[in-house]
Amino acid sequence: MSIDKNNQDLAERVHVLESLQAVQAGEETTQAATQAGLASTTAAAHAGTWSTIRGPAAGLIVGIFLGLAIAKA
Fold this sequence. Notes:
Distance between the termini: 108 Å
Number of domains: 1
Helix content: over 70%
Shape: rod-shaped
Number of helices: 1
C-alpha cells in the first residue's frame, strides 16, 4: 500500500513539474514574440520616417538644381 501511495505522489509531482515547464515554455515563447513584434514595429517606424524625409529632400535638391539651371538660362 505504501508503494502505491509513493508512486501516486511521485506521479503527481512529475505532473506538477511538467505543468511548470509548459508554463515556462509558454512565457519564453510569448517574450520572444513580443520582442519580435517590437523589432518589426521599430523597423517599420524607421522606414516610414526615412521615406517621409527622402521624398521632400529629393524634391528640394531637384528644385535647387532646376532653379540654378533656369537662372543661368
